[in-house]
Specification:
By secondary structure, this protein is of the alpha/beta class. It has a single domain, classed as Rossmann fold (3-Layer(aba) Sandwich), CATH 3.40.50.12640. Helices cover 53% and strands 11% of the residues. The chain contains ten helices and eight strands. The strands form two sheets. Strands 3-2-1-6-7-8 form a six-stranded parallel β-sheet, sandwiched between helices. Helix 4 links the parallel strand 1 and strand 2. Bound molecules: ligand PTJ.
Length: 241
């Protein structure tokens, strides 16, 4: 049992969720390592949402609301950590969630899809992918034609650099959530939220809710003022890298 007054209880609880997800067949072996990498960066950024990340969250909310066909991509770690939060965001955006795995097995895809549905996600895609991302060799190339393949804006939490690059090449606006401001994904994405997934997604949902009352011109102005390079540089400065 993790004492709730432990100074790092949130981080320890997230670790528990990943372990539970691993035992339940949602998270792959490498997902445990990915969590450790994330924890190390989160420790360096102070385990709280920093102001450059808040700027990125605002820009991401504007981009998602301006999109005609936004899609949220979910892998094993995302599902174990934030299935309900993903459901709330998808509901707010009225958009599908697509299971897309690096270490893809049909069994894990189906377990993740069932877990997402149980957590309240209405439309789950990616179980039977019928399209391919060009120039990508990993299992992540397998996508749904009515989901990621035809999306104009994709939210990609805990992504790999290759697929991020491939999505950008396909002309899609990409929004990454990644605690490592130096990762290829962070540098390739149009908007990178350098924050922990379970902190970032509820803040993003809240921002989407707030921005819903704004017109397209306002949202476009938020996006045009956003500078991802600067935001990443500011995050690096914060952690002294
Ligand atoms: O479920 P699968 O098969 O798709 O596999 C998923 C993992 C996460 C294993 C796979 O995508 C992978 O190997 O990811 P990486 O490249 O190890 O990690 C992706 C990035 O996510 C790294 O830069 C981590 O720092 C970051 N990260 C890890 N946990 C979190 C995180 N970022 C935000 N919030 C987290 N909780």
């Amino acid at each position: 049992m993790i004492p709730l007054n432990h100074p790092r209880s949130k981080s320890l609880l997230a670790r528990e969720k990943i372990i539970e997800g691993y035992r339940g067949g949602l998270v792959c072996d490498s997902g445990l390592i990915a969590q450790g990498r994330g924890e190390a960066f989160d420790y360096l950024i102070g385990e709280r949402t920093r102001s450059p990340a808040r700027k990125a969250i605002k820009a991401a909310a504007a981009a998602l609301l301006l999109a005609k066909h936004p899609v949220i991509s979910v892998n094993g770690n995302d599902a174990a950590l934030a299935a309900e939060d993903m459901g709330k965001l998808a509901k707010e955006l009225n958009c599908p969630v697509e299971v897309n795995l690096f270490y893809r097995t049909q069994g894990r895809v189906e377990r993740i899809a069932a877990h997402l549905k149980k957590a309240g996600v209405k439309e789950v895609l990616g179980v039977y992918p019928d399209a391919r991302i060009p120039e990508l060799n990993s299992e992540r190339r397998k996508v749904s034609s009515n989901g990621i393949y035809s999306a104009d804006c994709v939210l990609i939490p805990l992504e790999d650099g290759d697929r991020c690059e491939a999505l950008v090449k396909m002309g899609k606006r990409t929004i990454a959530i990644d605690l490592n401001p130096m990762s290829r994904t962070a540098r390739m994405a149009h908007i990178t939220i350098v924050d922990e997934l379970t902190r970032a997604v509820p803040l993003l949902t809240e921002e989407v809710r707030k921005f819903k009352g704004r017109n397209a011109a306002y949202l476009k102005s938020v996006l045009s003022r956003y500078d991802n390079r600067k935001v990443l540089g500011d995050m690096r400065k914060l952690i002294n890298l």
